[in-house]
Amino acid sequence: MIVDLLLWPALAALLWVNRRRPLLWPLVALALLLLFNRLFTPGFFALEIRDGRLYGTLVDVLNQGSKVMLLALGMTLVIATGGVDLSVGATMAIAGAVMARLAGVSIPVALGGGLGVALLAGAWNGLLVSAFRIQPIIATLILMVAGRGVAQLVTDGQIINFEQPALVYLGNGSLLGLPFTLALVLGMFVLTALLVRRTALGLFIEAIGDNETAARFTGLPARPVKFLVYVFAGLCAGLAGLVAASNIKSADANHIGLYLELDAILAVVVGGTALTGGRFQLAGSLVGALLIQTLGTTLYARNVGADVATVPKAIVILAVCLLQSPVLRAKLAGLRRPAPAALRKEGAA
Amino acid sequence: AADKPVVGFSQIGAESAWRTANTDSIKGEAAKRGITLKFADAQQKQENQIKALRSFIAQNVDVIAFSPVVETGWEPVLREIKKAGIPVILTDRAVKVSDPSLFVTFVGSDFVEEGRRAGKWLVEKTKGQAVIAELVGTPGSAPAIDRKKGFEEAIAGQAGMKIIKSQSGDFTRAKGKEVMETFLKSPEGKSINVLYAHNDDMALGAIQAIEEAGLKPGTDIVIVSIDGVKGAFEAMVAGKLNCTVECNPLIGAQLFDLVADVVAGKTLPKRIAVEEGLYDQSQAAAALPSRQY
Amino acid sequence: MNLAKLRPSARLLPVLASLGVLILLYAGGCLMFENFGSLRVLINLFGDNAFLGVAAVGATFVILSGGIDLSVGAVVAFTGVLIASLIGHGQPPLLAIGLALGFGAGFGALMGALIHLYALPPFLVTLGGMFLARGLAFVVHPESLSIDHPFYGEFISQTLSVPVSRRLAIPFTAFALIAVVLAGTALARWSRFGRNVLALGSSESSARLMGVPIGSTKILVYTLGGFLSALGGVVATFYMQSGNPASFVGLELDAIAAAVIGGTLLRGGVGYIPGTLVGVLILGLIQTLVIFQGTLNSWWTRIAVGGLLFVFIVLQQLTSRRRDG
Amino acid sequence: MSAPVLVCRGLTKRFPGVVALDGVDFCARGGEVHALMGENGAGKSTLIKALTGVHPRDAGEAEVDGRPVHPRSPREAEAAGISTVYQEVNLIPDLSVAENICLGRQRTRLGFIRWGDARTRARAALARLGLELDVDRTLSECSIAIQQLVAIARATDIDARVLILDEPTSSLDAGEVAQLFTVVRRLRDRGLAIVFVSHFLDQVYALADRITVLRNGRLVGEFPVAELPRLQLVAHMMGRSVDEVEALRHRERPAAAPGEPLLSTRGLALRHAVLPLDLELRRGEVLGLGGLLGSGRTEVARLLFGLDRADAGETRLEGRPVTFHSPADAMRAGLALTPEDRKTQAILPNLTVRENLIVALQARRGLWKQIPRAEQDRLVADFTRALGIKTSGPEQLIRNLSGGNQQKVILARWLATEPRLLILDEPTRGIDVGAQADIERLLARLRDEGLAIVFICADTAELSRNSQRIAVLRDHAKVAELTGPDVNEQAVMRAIARETAA
Ligand SMILES: Nc1ncnc2c1ncn2[C@@H]1O[C@H](COP(=O)(O)OP(=O)(O)OP(=O)(O)O)[C@@H](O)[C@H]1O
Ligand SMILES: Nc1ncnc2c1ncn2[C@@H]1O[C@H](COP(=O)(O)OP(=O)(O)OP(=O)(O)O)[C@@H](O)[C@H]1O
Ligand SMILES: [Mg+2]
Ligand SMILES: [Mg+2]
Questions:
Q1: Which of A35, A224, A313, D189 is deepest in the core (most CB within 10 A)?
Q2: Does the ipTM exceed 0.95?
């Protein structure tokens, strides 16, 4: 099949290119999961063209995964500074609700309003963390609790539907036969990558996350940078919220983004960024997000009930953890060739 | 205030438009009758609800009413309420208790019956021939369990009807859509010609998935769901949904009548049903303007 | 030098600030609402939050060691279902409780072992643990299940509670909470294990060089966390006489929040067990205030809880801010 | 001839990219102080860590009193009779002083720790080092010198056969060192084998009986102190001939032509930290800050650099009043500070040498103007060469560098910003003789290029050797300012002592 001809060589190439990079292990896990589906989940790789767009489970993975991928981009930077943002799910709900509320006014107002409140939410978190110096997990817990309430306040507890083609396009449209959300994710990824790698922001973030005291002694603007990453995480959450609302053509304040903060954090950590801060892997986070979505879709496709679906999910998380564990890898490497220490001892005896 | 009772009401949450309508109905009715209502929202958590009930005791309310999050786990708190001499009315969902004197009465829908009616309608509509996909509610929740049970009962005798896919869509649009997508893409997906959704929201999400797959909801796939929210009526008018079994949230008036009876010391039946209908496309357009939620 | 004398108590400042705000909130509630000052509300505060408090003490130990435990809520739910189902199958309650506690401890030990032996991040391992325990709970029994046994019906709620008046009794769970907090305080303050936990959380590399048994301390602290989560689950079954696999979602966040509000630093190494009790009571009090207010709908409830949390944390921050190094 | 207590044979330890120890033999005898010498990165600390179970060894064995020991953790090493003070303070910052001394060895009654006993023991252990302080204080609130002493107190609190001290004196002043030596000698006379690492030759010659020299992870040789002249020792360490070393040591007297004032303070003060202080810093001049530990030198540096905000007094930069609200402000004005606590205040442990080196310059250029990679690489190459930084490459993580090399990277970090005023808080701490000479020469060169320099150093000899002017602090106040011919060791000592007597 054509998919096989394209996908596997591409994956192999990716693995090869990243063989000495932190990206390797999440990629390996993703490849294994895909391979499992190729072999055991009928129809998972079926692709066809319908209505001028690609149609199939793999496309769904990309489309559905776009929300976590967007969240993960912002979350990566937050985690790299040594923080965490629990409020992204609630921020998604607020952004979606505001967009739906303003949908009737005009498209730019709806989009701008949604993203605007998301930026405000991020700024609020940033303020609490950088100016009030509240521990991030608690600072963002406040908005996690209250944010969904704000979203419900905006929708008045109702599910608000909208039909505006532009807004519907955001989460359901296709560009060159692929979901528009994919383009959105790639665009945000490139933008983020440029922002952190073409300016000194990446270095600043990593320095602050690695040793904040030292960063301050070195004259780094620790507080502004922290503020900024939360605002950015808010923006990403806002975009994800718009996509989520657009996906179902309505704002469901109670459910949009529910528990998605956990998936986002998971994606980041699986992707190779440590929760303690410091070095971050932007691309790794995307792979992590894809891995999580693929897993979720796999479970649906294999008809595993949502209640017990957490068991295989746990097993995959732990497996990826173990794959990344330097200790286990050292042990495996030790199995392959005899330990040098052992050789030495024999020589000495 | 001596003649007007103080009522404590603990609501499950605001997880759906249905629930919000339920809340509004109760609050609105209390206001209309000038009854002091102590309202507490449990955010879908039983432990919060128990806290609220115990607070109602501390606040010396005259009557306690609540929609339990789950069916079990109420014995201790209900005993405590009984000890304090406060009558309890259950709404929407029942509880399982060994001592029936722990509550006065239960007013609400019969979820099993709802499932049964959906099933019966389907048997008639499809003449006993259907390949069914089922979108289940939140795992473990009473409506999910009962609506599944009632539906299965109703189609049990039909050899030509079988459920080939059954997955939880968590009562939400987004999950309903996502799960339907995978249903349709599975190898058996092409044969699905009926969708049974435990609530309208999941059905509305699934309709989008069906449309994106290039199929016609309501025609290629017959869709029946439960609740009867406004969105479902709109979808029926548009021909995308075939039938919805009403589950009526507007119980405010009924509830406060019962409160008055309880305060007056009348004996009440243990189980009071809510008036509910079943709507298909033919009735939808007529009913739509009168839908309040 | 006089400054030096003042400083040690600076560490206690967040706890004292929390306590102050707790008292303030309580007094405020008494002024605003009728019956708020009644003994029943006070007793409820302890009894209703006992399961959270017990689990939060465990979570505090884990945080003190520099780790985190996200599996708390799921383990609480799992043990509830396990006990309910065992009793449902005719097992004696004490055996069921013992098995559940054993499971919790073993589950924690397993997570601790993975974290230590393979140098895995605690966040991921315990998140895995959370998913696993949640899923297993549904495997044991997919729905909520009530416990019908005289031990639960009579013994716990009648025999073991202390009546204050004809209508009011202090529930057994409140005593369980206080006992666990006292034991936890003693363990943290007066045992070698407790001090090793703090050392580990403050600086793992130094602790290793100073001869702290890193491995066993880490594994033990997660074992303790798992055990106390399970104990929280047991307390919850006393409270609800049922087990529900879908319950206590997000309890771990409440536990972590309670610890942090009580002056525990998330980075580890600094914190007090009694502070966690204060944190738990504050979370409980916020809820009680909202319920007594009695008109807030779902979203205003959320906003109010978030807002009170915010006010509270800022107050605590302002009263305990120190010059940082 | 005393009996060997600790014997190692063929110790080998490899790290990715480096062989840190290559078949080293080592033997410490009871009743002797054995100095372990070598340049930064020679493998001294690695030897100690491989011996005490911090790092698993790749090969080699060790014995204590003839019994083979193979500790897998410092705890097991301690049980085998080896007590160690590792390089850099390795204590628990959030615990009290008393607890840090007793951790893991607390006496208990019925399972409960006896806190009173712990305090008493801690006080006793500190008293042996001539130190009297509040043992309930949290460790992180104590100055780094105090922390170092606490670590030593902890190591001497137990019965051991071997006591290993890895650069214990690097942050101590003369008085503290003397006190420490008294204790060490007493322990030695009790028959302990003592292993002592230091870059201070005077201290080594004052204390040690025997010296083992390492170079690049290899054993150069073991020598009785009496048979190893200093010059020869340095030559062994550096792997050069005695003549070459002699040439290195030659140094010109400071040229005394200070330029116009750059920064001055009037009555600058911070409650509890600095009493009103007048200072004048001139271009082309090194101002030394002298004083005992805890006299407030670090506090002055923090204040000047905007890490703390003064609550009285004023600062003038080239005559114009300035206030620095943050280090960033100070940096913009051309100030630089290398802090005294490298581990917590300076290094970004998980970032590379390159990133650590350019980070201050980048901070100064701001967020948007990223330093081009080529320029970064050039900076790293230049400074690595100029300061003799030993790395396996610019992309090595700084945490894997030896302590002395980390210090050089931090120095380079600040030199790269081309500051006008450089504040050096104990810059030569933990730096080997060769590098120390390098740094001192660099200091002179920078001064000649017109930099104003504030030099804080616990070693009065080094201080007076490198300063044109010395301000002596005591109890957080300036008590004397020495200029011209008064800039010498005796004068500094006198200034401190005079005030003490008063
Ligand atoms: N954990 C590690 N990983 C990789 N390399 C290391 C590690 N620890 C030390 N090294 C390397 O091993 C070599 C020896 O370092 P070591 O710390 O033993 O030197 P040292 O003699 O103690 O120097 P100093 O006087 O500066 O303290 C150095 O090249 C250092 O970079
Ligand atoms: N012997 C001591 N007992 C108690 N506190 C001390 C002692 N020595 C220093 N301190 C405290 O440590 C803090 C740090 O002092 P500071 O670092 O400014 O001194 P310093 O002159 O730089 O000494 P150091 O040689 O330690 O760098 C001061 O607040 C001081 O009060
Ligand atoms: Mg060293
Ligand atoms: Mg100092």
A1: A313
A2: no
